[in-house]
Design goal:
The complex is a heterodimer. Chain A is of the alpha+beta class. Chain A is 49% helix and 19% strand. Classes of the chains: A alpha+beta, B alpha/beta.
Chain lengths: 597, 119
């Protein structure tokens, strides 16, 4: 398995992006369908050829049926006319009337004749025909000689050169030939009988293999032109299909169908190239559709993934921008919900980063500013001492050096504050775990504070006789109280009182520091414990310090398992409460402390 | 022998400046912020030189200088600006309003030389 994963191809495939994968997936899914269609293109081509063949067959049959019906209908009519004439022993006038009434029923007919056996036209419709048509003589001869009872034939008019289709019927009365009925149709009008074909060519061929009607000429073709092989075979009674080369050396293919009742034949054919082309088009069309589907699917996948990826790319760009220091880099959430959620999370993170950045900058500025003052004081002091020493030892040397020492302490205190803050951030607080007497701690803190400033009266309550022991770090706890005390004096007027109370309860002890100072607005009661926060100082003085005191204090107190919070009323004063869990030890008993609940 | 007004809120620095200048033979007056400094300027005899810190509560050095430069009688008094680094140039008063600049931390010798040059 590991070797598979090490494989170069597998690795490069795994690094393919979303777009590549989705497109790949789409292709994998669509490909079988489209591929199948592509593969069957050749079969579709053959299928289309087959369909065309069937269509030609159907057309041939339709043509054959229609034409046969037409002819048989004429025969029947002629027979009916003849019978009527014979039975009724009709006069010429009567015959003409009858024929004239019938003619309109057959719009394709030129003429309807009633002739005597020798061909003399006795009656005709339209009635202008008279005499004997020389061209019909052959027919009469054949009928008279008993060769045929019925003749269907094509003749070409001797005078007008027009081709016509003639159906002649012998009329007998008791076996005796009494006349002939003849119907004449110009070949041109036959196309009204023959169904329209679509690109295919219809040829109607008579017993003598003369092409009576051909779509190309819309009439008969010349006698020099033989009928096509399909029709010829059909004349022999054989329905067939196949290819042949026409007189122009073009390849044609089609079907031939015999018209058995007439002894004629019909062929329907089309130029092979056209047939193949049509089938080819069909195959190409479906191939094209298949390819189009693949292309559309890929395009859809590509643009779909682009829509998904764009917000991701924007997020990436914003992240890069932010990491290069552009604090205002944000993303407009968009796209799929998951990506939008990620964008919102990024914005939130960026806000936090910008905030921390600002805090850090402010802190550094403040730190530099704060540290500079004691530094300036020390330098000024020492340079003065130096200058004075040129004139002889100054009287106040000890005092001056004391001031320098104080400034150094001040500086040292600030640096410690910074160090503590960093330790807190890194989580390296390192609290000791020893029994600590809170009363002792408080007294030490007050003592140290009084060294620094004496403008406020600090009162202790309940400190001396309440012995409350906790488990923890005495030095750190002292620091906490000094910070709270320092704030109390910083934010309350000179001369006002600060009261520190120690109270012990069942499981906890509480140290309360109460001042009569500016107070803290309600919305800042929690904020004062945040890093770098320095309260607005209404007296206008620079509050000094780095804003880290209470932040560290809170971390230390919670590290001891306790809580620290502030209560305040603006303009009246503030009360800071430090609550710590009591530690009942045998050591405490041994030391004989008075546990006063 | 000149009358010098020191306007500085940092006790140690003010003390050092005063001690040094007095030892050098000058007459020193102090104020701990711009407002009290301005009050002294208006109510007491005019000093020959003003040493003023930039960052002070209530009224800072820039505000003070801008104020006195528009007041008759006060606008001609030379001033020395004392400052630590400032965040931006905008916090400085216009260049014409002070005659010298001393940066913290400084040595008293620098102060003495500057004072000598201006009085």
């Amino acid at each position: 398995m590991a070797r598979v994963l090490e494989n170069r191809w597998v690795k490069s495939m795994c690094s393919v992006g979303l777009r590549g994968r989705i497109v790949g997936l789409v292709v994998l899914v669509i490909l079988p369908f489209s591929g199948f269609q592509l593969i069957t293109a050749y079969q579709q081509y053959n299928l289309q050829l087959r369909r065309d063949l069937i269509a030609h067959e159907q057309l041939a049959h339709a043509v054959g049926a229609t034409f046969t019906n037409y002819v048989e209908d004429l025969w029947a009519t002629e027979k009916a006319i003849g019978t009527a004439m014979a039975i009724g022993d009709m006069s010429t006038k009567g015959a003409e009337t009858l024929l004239g009434a019938l003619l309109p029923n057959y719009p394709t007919l030129d003429y309807l004749f009633w002739t005597s056996p020798d061909g003399t036209i006795l009656a005709s419709a339209p009635s202008s025909w008279a005499g004997v048509s020389v061209s019909f003589r052959d027919y009469f001869q054949r009928i008279v000689e008993g060769e045929d009872e019925v003749i269907s034939d094509m003749i070409v008019g001797r005078y007008d050169g027009e081709a016509a289709f003639v159906v002649a019927q012998a009329i007998r009365q008791e076996g005796k030939l009494i006349g002939v009925v003849l119907a004449r149709t110009p070949i041109k009008k036959l196309n009204q009988v023959i169904p329209v074909s679509d690109g295919a060519v219809v040829a109607l061929v008579d017993r003598q293999a003369t092409t009576m009607y051909h779509t190309a000429t819309d009439g008969p073709v010349g006698p020099n032109r033989p009928a096509d092989p399909l029709a010829l075979r059909a004349l022999r009674g054989e329905a067939n299909s196949g290819n042949y080369t026409n007189p122009n050396s073009r390849d044609w293919s089609g079907v031939g169908v015999p018209l058995s009742r007439l002894g004629w034949a019909v062929s329907v054919s089309a130029e092979t190239l056209n047939v193949r082309a049509a089938a080819g088009y069909a195959a190409i069309r479906s191939t094209g559709v298949a390819l189009l589907i693949i292309v559309l699917a890929i395009l859809g996948a590509v643009s779909g993934t682009k829509w998904v990826l764009q917000p991701v790319k924007r997020l990436q760009a914003a992240a890069i921008s932010l990491s290069e220091g552009n604090m205002s880099a944000r993303v407009v959430p968009g796209g799929v919900p998951e990506v939008a959620a990620a964008a919102r999370a990024f914005n939130h993170m960026a806000d936090r980063v910008a905030e921390l950045q600002t805090q850090r900058t402010r802190f550094l500025q403040t730190a530099a500013h704060e540290l500079r003052n004691p530094m300036a004081g020390i330098k000024a002091m020492l340079s003065m001492i130096n200058w004075m020493m040129e004139k002889g030892q100054p009287d106040d040397l000890a005092r001056f050096l004391g001031v320098v020492e104080r400034e150094v302490d001040r500086l040292s205190g600030l640096l410690n504050e910074i160090l503590e803050a960093f330790r807190v951030q890194e989580g390296h607080l390192g609290l000791k775990q020893e029994p600590v007497n809170l009363a002792t701690v408080i007294e030490a803190a007050v003592q140290a504070h009084r060294v620094m400033e004496t403008e406020h009266f600090v009162t202790l309550q309940g400190v001396s006789h309440n012995a409350a022991w906790v488990l923890g770090d005495a030095e750190r706890l002292e620091g906490v109280i000094r910070v709270v005390l320092g704030n109390a004096s910083k934010y309350s007027p000179a001369g006002s009182e600060i009261v520190i109370t120690l109270a012990a309860f069942e499981t906890t002890a509480q140290i309360t520091v109460k001042d009569h100072g500016l107070g803290i607005p309600a919305h800042q009661l929690n904020k004062v414990f945040e890093q770098f926060f320095r309260a607005d100082n209404l007296s206008g003085r620079d509050p000094g310090g780095l804003g880290l005191g209470l932040y560290v204090a809170r971390v230390v107190v919670t590290g001891h398992g306790g809580r620290i919070w502030a209560e305040s009323e603006e303009g009246v004063g503030s009360t800071f409460v430090i609550e710590l869990p009591l530690h009942h030890t045998r050591m405490g008993d041994l030391l004989g402390q008075d546990l006063d609940h | 022998m000149a009358r010098i007004l020191i306007i500085e809120d940092e006790e140690t620095i003010a003390m050092v400046l005063a001690q040094t200048l007095e030892l050098a033979g000058h007459n020193v007056v102090r104020a701990s912020n711009g407002r009290t400094g301005l009050a002294r300027l208006q109510s007491e005899p005019l000093p020959d030189l003003i040493l003023v810190d930039l960052f002070m509560p209530v009224m800072n050095g820039r505000a003070l200088l801008e104020t006195i430069r528009s007041m008759p009688g006060l606008h001609k008094i030379p001033a020395v600006l004392i400052t630590g680094a400032v965040p931006s140039k905008d916090d400085f008063p216009p260049e014409a309003s002070y005659q010298a600049l001393i940066a913290k931390p400084f040595s008293v010798r620098t102060v003495l030389e500057t004072v000598k040059r201006l009085v």
